[in-house]
Each structure stands twice: as C-alpha cells, then as structure tokens.
Amino acid sequence: MIELDFLRLLLAFICGYLLTLSGSLCQLVSNNSIASPSTLGMDGFAVIFVILAYFFPLFDVESMSFEHTSFLLFLGFFILLSSIFLKRKGFEANIWKEFNIQKVVLIGLAFNLLVGAVFSIIQFLFMALNIRFPSGLWFGSIKYGTVEYLAPVLVIYFFIQLFLFFEIKGLEVLNLGKQMALSVGIKVDQVQKKSLMMALLCTGTVISYFGVFSFLGLIFPHILRSLPYFKKNMRKELYIGPYLTGFVFCLFDQFCYQFTLYGAELPVGMVSSVIGAVFLIFLLFKINISKL
Predict the structure, then answer these.
(1) How many angstroms separate the first and last alpha carbons of the chain?
(2) Would you call 261 helix, strand, or coil by DSSP?
(3) Residue 266 and residue 249: Cα distance in Å, rounded?
(4) CA distance 138 to 136
(5) CA torsion 42→280→217→256, rounded to 10°?
(6) Which of 226, 218, 211 shows the shortest CA–CA distance to 279?
(7) CA-to-CA distance for 64 and 66, rounded, in angstroms?
(8) d(C-alpha 245, C-alpha 243), whole Å
(9) What is the 3-state secondary structure (H, E, C) of 164-226?
(10) What's the whole-model pTM score?
(11) Please, are residues 192 and 29 in contact by the beta-carbon 8 Å criterion?
C-alpha cells in the first residue's frame, strides 16, 4: 500500500522548483549548455556552510536545528557577497570589475572539485577518529524535512518570484544574445550577476536543508527544452518549467520513498548523482559531435 506524506510532497516540489530555476538561470546567463550549480561551484560554496554549521554550532540544538544553523550561516555570507558582487559604484573587488562569465564557469568548476576533495578528507579523518559526521548530506534526501522548513523555504520562493517579476524582460532580451541586449540598453553584467546570485540562493537553500542533489540543475532545464512547449521560449522555461519539474521531482522522490532496498531508503540525491553523471557524459559527447 502506498503511503503519501503531503509535507514531504510539498518540500520535494519546492526543492525541484528551486533546482530547476537555478540551473536555467546558470545556463541562460552563461550561454553554456553544461553550466549548472554543480559545475559553477555553487554546490561547493553551500556545502562549506553545512560543514561550518557542524563544527561551530551557533545555537542551542534544542532550540535551533542543524539545518537552520547551516542556512543562517549561508544566508549571512550570501548577503555579504551580494553587497560586493552587485555593487555598482564605489569600491568593488577587482575580480568583479570586469565581469567575465567564462572565468566564473572555470573558477566555479575548480572550486567545486576542491570542496569535494576537502569534504572527503574531513570525512576520512572523522571516520578514523570514530566521530560521527553527516556524510549523508552529500547525497540529498527529503526524508529529513520537517514542518519547520516550510517558512524559510517559502520566503525564498516568494523572493525569487519578485526577482523574476523585475528582471524577466532583461533576461528575455539577453536570451536573444548579448549584443542584442546591449543594443537596447540592457545592463548585461548586472543581469548576469543578479541571476547568478539568485541561482546561488536557490542552491544554498536546498543544500542547507536537504543536502546535495548533483546535476539536477543541469538535467531538468535540458528536459524542459526537449519539449516543444518550452523549446526556445525562455519566459515559459523560467515561469512554468520549474513547476513541471518540481512535480517530476516529487514522483522521483516518492519512488525512492516507496521502493526501499532491504528496508533502507535510497537517498534521491544519490540516485540523481548517478543519472546526472551519465547524462553529463552523454551531453558532452553530443556537443563534441555537433562541432565536428
């Protein structure tokens, strides 16, 4: 008999929504079909705060959960980073004076690989010292979700809606090409920066509460664009697409929840990592063949 947990369904839906929107924004502003939170270093950035929350708990565990601590740490640094990243006048970090999206792609990929290596070393040291470490966070799962997660996750959801409302026109013109956007007065650098920050916010929120879902931000936008309804229509992809893939992710999570392996639930993040890695290899071959 199939049992439905409606809270889990809702959290899985929002999780799928945020992951898809994050991936679509990354690919749109970078004009790179393999760009995603995983390949741009966003996963690694968010994981850092999960590790910090474990080592340096800021709140009494009885009044504040580990996931809330991780999210607040991430949110604090996100706000600080935004104040530098999006600043238009006055002092600005040298690295962002001449914004280059290709540099961001390369730096992000290298950073993500570095964090993965560091995470593995820390996990090994904890195992050697016989200390429990939340290695399960590396493979995301909705099963740990509680009703307390709803408030912050919904706040982020509505914040993202405001971003889309104010920036959709700029994103729509940018989708036609950078030169086209510049010719009509769109501040391309600012649109790119804001979009990447929103993608980071989506990714950090998901990872803080549910762990890492590698490559879903890469897969879902490509699935959407393979459908005639979304193909070459960026507005539909950003406004409607995440809802569809949110529903798909619900079904995906329910499959892992209902069909256990020897009584143990397979983390949906682990399953998605395997599928996503295979999909990435296929995509790279496809891109290479198309250039021959």
Answers:
(1) 52
(2) strand
(3) 15
(4) 5
(5) -110
(6) 218
(7) 7
(8) 6
(9) HHHHHHHHHHHCCCHHHHHHCCCCHHHHHHHHHHHHHHHHHHHHHHHCCCCCHHHHHHHHHHC
(10) 0.85
(11) yes
Task: Answer whether 241's CB lies under 8 Å from 230's CB.
Answer: yes
How does pLDDT run along the chain (292 residues), one tens digit per residue? 455 688 899 999 999 999 999 999 998 888 888 788 888 888 888 888 888 887 766 554 444 567 888 888 899 889 888 887 766 544 444 444 455 666 777 777 787 778 777 777 877 777 787 766 665 566 788 887 888 888 889 899 999 999 999 989 888 888 877 788 878 788 888 888 889 899 999 999 999 999 888 788 888 998 888 888 888 788 899 999 999 999 999 988 888 887 777 767 777 887 777 777 787 777 767 665 544 4
Contacts 24+ apart (CB under 8 A), 101-110: 101/29, 101/30, 101/31, 101/32, 101/192, 102/30, 104/30, 104/40, 104/196, 105/30, 105/32, 105/35, 105/39, 105/40, 107/41, 108/39, 108/40, 108/41, 108/42, 109/39, 109/40, 109/41, 110/41
Is 15 strand, coil or helix?
A: helix
Q: For residue 30, what is the enclosing H or E element?
A: helix 6-30
Amino acid at 170: G
* Token pair listed for 197: 């920050």
CA atoms of 235 and 175, how far apart (whole Å): 10
Only one residue has tokens 């601590």, namely 69
Q: What six digits make up the tokens of 139?
A: 């493979």
Token readout for 228 is 């005639």
